[in-house]
Amino acid sequence: MNAAQRIKSAIRDVPDFPKPGILFKDITPILSDPALFRAAIDLFAERHRNSGVQKFAAIEARGFFFASALCDRLGVGMIPIRKKGKLPYKTFDHAYDLEYGSAAVSVHQDAFRPGEKVVLIDDLLATGGTAAAATRLIEQAGGTVIEIDFLVELAFLNGRAKLTGYPVFAPVVF
Length: 174
Ligand code: AMP
Known about the structure:
By secondary structure, the protein is of the alpha/beta class.
């Protein structure tokens, strides 16, 4: 099996979490296995060693796991995109719908230098609402989104339709 296949087979399905009818893809078995976690970071690191990325923007909370290791590996800064109300300084905010409910995300207004090349990263692409909201925030704060990366894509939810115009990379697809 290649790395993406090994990662895929380690993901645990949790039915009816956090609401009835949602099949939750639990990535914690990847975090707890050092070889698998490194393999996941390798997939992103190989992609961005020469991509020109200047900041990784990571979506709370599971995006932080992957982005922080990746940023350390590549020597690139990380910007947290958090649920509204969590960031301490001045923020831009964007409300959106997600697969199970609605929410708002925020970024610090001074997160990016004008035109800075940003890769957005999260663990999983479902409906795409969260990532679409995050791209708005990055652009509002002056960044240029050069790619959106997920470890996992739930292709049947067609989240890419909300992200048209942006390259999307997701090595594990259900
Ligand atoms: P969405 O905005 O619908 O693309 O939802 C993406 C966010 O919700 C990501 O941060 C995921 O971690 C989480 N998420 C949504 N659906 C699932 C699912 N079925 N399994 C695991 N995480 C999910």
